[in-house]
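Ticket #4471: structure output looks truncated?

Reporter: J.K.
Steps to reproduce: submitted the chain below (153 residues) through the standard prediction queue, then opened the result file.
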Amino acid sequence: MIAEAVATKLPQSNTGETQPVTRSPAEKRRERKNRALKSIYKYVVMSTGMGFVPAPLVSQIAVSGVLVSMVTELCHEFDAPVSNHVIKTTLASILGGAHSGWIAHYSTKHIYRFVPSVSYAASIVARPIAAGAITYAIGRLFLRHLETGAWDS
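Returned output as attached by the reporter:
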């Protein structure tokens, strides 16, 4: 607690005024990345929850909405110019044919070949796991993309 108070403001010599402490660019990048990772984890939990919706089309639309919100928040965190149209077209091109419904369908189909009794449980859990994994992968992809500054060009 004392370290936080000292780290945020230091008193000047005799005037009693305080001035903010400047942090190194590496510390600022680390803090920004930590905030972005917390944001990604929050959206992974949200999309995993959306994966439990029993209607595949509805859950895919919900997960897509979560992805758009996550990328928008990441772009705001990195002060990148953002428009919803660009984000939606970028995510649509990334997700093209790979979404949680298809991944869950094919993975449970292959699991059934090996262990038939596990198929039903796997079919219930596969879509949320796939939705969370897709969200995590896209979040880390955009995080790396924004860290390099490639979005600005």
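Triage note (M.O.): checked the attachment and the full token line is present. The chain has a mean pLDDT of 76.
Status: closed, working as intended.
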